[in-house]
Design brief:
Elements: H1 2-17, E1 20-22, E2 25-28, H2 32-36, H3 42-62, H4 68-74, H5 90-100, H6 111-122
Length: 123
Amino acid sequence: MEKKQFVFGNKVLRKIFGPICGAGEWKRRRHNEEIRTTQYGDHVIVAVIKSRRLKWAGHVIRRSEDSNMKNVWKSEILGSRPVGRPKNRWKDQVLKDLQKLNLTEEDADNRDSWRLKIDEDIN
């Protein structure tokens, strides 16, 4: 999942910074190494995506038990998946990120400490 985020981030930064201009003409598009040396490196983009994903997950977890968002968060899809590599779900990625940061869903109840922990650990 993070690799896809790196690829997307590089695409966005390539559009923002544009191609290389040399001798009065546009030569080529920027390489990944040139993008990484800018002030907006890969790690910054992935960190922002992770922190916003976890902050939104905290918002969903804090919702009341009868809210639609909370019902979707707790729901499990019945049936079998097609053969092949399993699809990455948003919830699975959030749970992996929580595990890496040693956080639990119960930690989301305190909004201020949740945000502080996410900002400290990711940035």
